[in-house]
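Morning. Coffee machine broken again, so started the prediction first thing and wrote up yesterday's gels while waiting. Chain of 129 residues, entered below exactly as on the submission form.
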Amino acid sequence: MSVELNHTIIFARDNRASAEFLAGILGLKAGAQWGPFVPVETSNGVTLDFASVGPEKVAAQHYAFLVSEEEFTASFERIQQAGLTYYADPGLKKPGEINHNDGGRGVYFLDPDGHGMELITRPYGSGGR
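Came back before lunch.
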């Protein structure tokens, strides 16, 4: 059997709000609450389980999503429509820009809990600049 990531837990102040935020940007649906989790499933079968915790337990994490050019365009439009600040870099030093690393497009933005979200159209190291 090959090893695959099945799910991960993302701590949030409000699991429903955070799940719906990310699902909305990505054009996905937040699922029904299951126990303490609100799931968002990606197309490759990985589930992001959002769990409500106190604000002191939310430590900023980074989540990167590989998307098609079409999905990037649609998600980036939703980022702009939501009035989110976005960046070309993980250090958040280039606001209002996207990057073109490896010949693709990439963007960083923060979710309501300060988690760094990244959308890329080409995997790192896949070539092009």
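The chain has one domain: 7-120. Going to sketch it on the whiteboard this afternoon.
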